[in-house]
Amino acid sequence: MGRKIQTVGHHKIISEFRHLSGLTIAVDDCAYLARSFRDYGVDDYIIAYYEGSSYFTRYIPYYVDLLPCWEYKKEYLIPLIFREMPDTQKMFKESYRWAAFFKLLDWYLTYQPDKVLIDCQKRPGKKRVVDTAFLIFRLWEICDGAAFPIGNLNNLAEFQHWDHIFHLIDTGKSFRRTKDFDPARIEDLTQLEVILAIIKMRYQAM
pLDDT tens digit string along 172-191? Predict the structure, then answer.
């Protein structure tokens, strides 16, 4: 990223008892980043109606009338709506995180698409919608929670023991990681490869 991206507060009254706060970015920043991320598969940007249940709202139904989004690999839409958390701010301060975001997204689309795609009632252009907030949460787990301890492990057996306790490898359904890491499963092994590649990107950016 060659310029500083400012996040924009997103506030909405859900009911008389609940007020939801989040973050998005300005349309011109969305357009700038779409051009910057073409090599990762971002085709263009649009302003779209967004509706669905996602990690952003802890999986309750939610809609936004006009939301900046990226079109990704001609099949997907990446809504730029984020939880108001420190990990969101890091996405715009540490440039390697977006490269890591797309690497992680591609793994999920290949192996666990149900976890990262939102069941939307209205899909612009019939594109499938990505749960952006979930992916940013996973990046936080990898980059900020797991990078240091994994960097001090010496072999696969040590990782298996560590993961048995901390459950970084995403297995099972929803957020329940019900299975241990199995190096014989291609899904687990490729996920570990992606995680290690992201951690390497983190340390190379320091």
Answer: 665 566 678 899 999 999 99
